[in-house]
Write a sequence for this structure.
């Protein structure tokens, strides 16, 4: 078991943003996390990656309790996350952006550069490696997010909406990239809004609504789940369907 | 493909060494050609302010932490070595290191307190810190002599870091100037420099990638304050008289920040270039107009500053790099 989250809750003031969430991810899994806007998906990523602390429950990564650790330590242990709203290091070249990620494992700058070149080749940004990151398009920024995360050599990578805001052509490219990631055997935990994509890519899907896990299972089961349909399309839809 | 890239890299490296060697040689020989003490004094001031701006740049340029309290570190350096010399006869060469370490310790405490604050708030907090240093220097009369200042003994000797002519000061100044540039260059091309840049650009992203931003910033603070204090000692040894106005007033921090920003913040050579441009302008304007048209030199100084910042907001060094292709290879 690579990641084991037990009974996590997160409150902001009087609002329960996450309510008693438990989940497990095994090595090699590709797990999708879906849910309507405001369901708490990104909050869950913040909690797992150490950006938010919770007092309740526990989070174990490879049998280490990480619920009290800060993000940098968690990354060093091999759990890395990307951001939905991309956060490039804008005023430095793309290659340096990725090298900073690679320094998480690399012993030297030279080693980091080698790793960064490799990763940039993989995500298809190699020909733009000398551009300043702020000059990248949205689609390329999303790639850069993934590249930096990959460069840290994570054992578990959390992808937060890598496909949001892309046009159809860019979307196809991104799907290809994530499919390549899946094929590379890396363990992935993916937040995604585009159902068709997540259903095809994931081995298992989890659904959040109002901070609660309302369903979990194989993609085909989830697509037929009454609770999930209700959460996404409303009660009336179910009634109309009979 | 591969061999050609390698070749161009080694060519770039050779070119870099040749250019650096030439620059150092030029700087080394140049002072010998100047017979005029007025110009030698200007040269020493360029080295002092260039080195100090470089020290400031390590924290503010690479790490994006705009400190306005560096006057306190400069003052700690000047006062520590001077007091150790006056009371215990300790050579300033060692007093300099003591002052540097003391400034580092103070810097670390300041860091622990102020690193919670971001951008403007950090600048304001450090400004207050610098002001406290200045007030302490004025009011702690039993230690610092207050506003009357402290006069250093004038007894030329290498051991006591005191010389009868300007030339030895020029070369020690040049040495510190080059050391700060070399340290900046080393930082820029090290893990520390990459991490500082990552913090400056986006803290959350840096942490998500495993950058220990707290530790990295403290290291930059310690290094930056250490070097600032060393330059402070050198300044005291050169001017042989220190008082709160000359070594710890708040304007010193502002001035150093300006040199670095105008020259090119976040680059190894930028602060040096900033001092190279502005120190002579200041000296010449003051010499030519200081008495006949008092105040006018400050206005002209201000106009030049505004023009540079309008047309080269990234600094002169960055602009030169864009314009002259050969510099891009360095």
């Amino acid at each position: 078991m690579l990641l084991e989250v037990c009974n996590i809750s997160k409150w902001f003031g009087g609002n329960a943003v996450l309510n008693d969430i438990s989940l497990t991810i095994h090595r090699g899994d590709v797990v999708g996390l879906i849910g309507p806007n405001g369901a708490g998906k990104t909050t869950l990523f913040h909690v797992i990656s150490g950006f938010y602390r919770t007092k309740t429950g526990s989070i174990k990564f490879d049998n280490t309790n990480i619920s009290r650790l800060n993000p940098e330590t968690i990354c060093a242990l091999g759990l890395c996350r990307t951001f939905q709203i991309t956060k490039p290091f804008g005023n430095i070249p793309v290659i340096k952006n990725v090298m900073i990620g690679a320094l998480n494992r690399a012993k030297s700058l030279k080693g980091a550069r080698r790793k960064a070149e490799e990763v940039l080749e993989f995500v298809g940004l190699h020909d733009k490696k000398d551009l300043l990151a702020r000059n990248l398009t949205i689609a390329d920024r999303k790639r850069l997010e993934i590249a930096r995360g990959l460069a840290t050599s994570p054992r578990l990578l959390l992808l937060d909406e890598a496909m949001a805001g892309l046009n159809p052509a860019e979307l196809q490219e991104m799907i290809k990239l994530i499919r390549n990631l899946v094929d590379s055997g890396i363990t992935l935990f993916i937040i995604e809004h585009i159902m068709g994509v997540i259903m095809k890519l994931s081995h298992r899907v989890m659904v959040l609504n109002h901070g609660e896990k309302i369903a979990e299972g194989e993609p085909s089961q989830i697509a037929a789940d009454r609770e999930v349909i209700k959460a996404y399309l409303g009660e009336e839809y179910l009634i109309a369907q009979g | 493909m591969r061999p050609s890239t390698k070749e161009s890299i080694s060519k770039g490296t050779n070119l870099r060494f040749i250019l650096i060697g030439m620059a150092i040689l030029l700087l080394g020989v140049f002072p010998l050609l100047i017979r005029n003490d007025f110009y030698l004094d200007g040269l020493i001031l360029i080295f002092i302010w260039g080195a100090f701006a470089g020290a400031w740049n390590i924290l503010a340029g690479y790490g994006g932490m705009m400190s306005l309290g560096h006057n306190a570190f400069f003052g700690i350096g000047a006062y520590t070595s001077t007091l150790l010399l006056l009371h215990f006869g300790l050579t300033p060469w060692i007093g300099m290191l003591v002052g540097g370490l003391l400034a580092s310790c103070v810097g670390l405490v300041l860091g622990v307190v102020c690193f919670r604050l971001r951008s403007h708030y950090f600048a304001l907090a450090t400004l207050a810190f610098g002001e406290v240093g200045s007030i302490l220097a004025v009011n702690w009369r039993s230690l610092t002599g207050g506003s009357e200042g402290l006069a250093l003994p004038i007894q030329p000797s290498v051991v006591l870091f005191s010389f009868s002519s300007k030339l030895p000061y020029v070369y020690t100044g040049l040495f510190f100037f080059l050391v700060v540039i070399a340290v900046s260059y080393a930082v820029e091309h090290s893990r520390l420099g990459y991490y500082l840049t990552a913090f400056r650009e986006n803290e959350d992203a840096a942490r998500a990638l495993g950058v220990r931003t707290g530790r990295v910033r403290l290291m930059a603070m310690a290094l930056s304050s250490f070097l600032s204090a060393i330059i402070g000692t050198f300044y005291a040894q050169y001017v042989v008289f220190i008082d709160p106005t000359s070594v710890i007033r708040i304007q010193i921090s502002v001035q150093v920040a300006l040199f670095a920003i105008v020259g090119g913040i976040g680059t190894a050579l930028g602060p040096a270039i900033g001092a190279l441009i502005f120190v002579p302008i200041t000296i010449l304007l003051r010499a030519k107009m200081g008495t006949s048209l008092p105040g006018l030199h400050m206005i002209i100084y201000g106009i030049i500053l505004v023009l540079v910042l309008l047309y080269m907001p990234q600094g002169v060094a960055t602009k030169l790099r864009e314009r002259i292709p050969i510099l891009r290879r360095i």
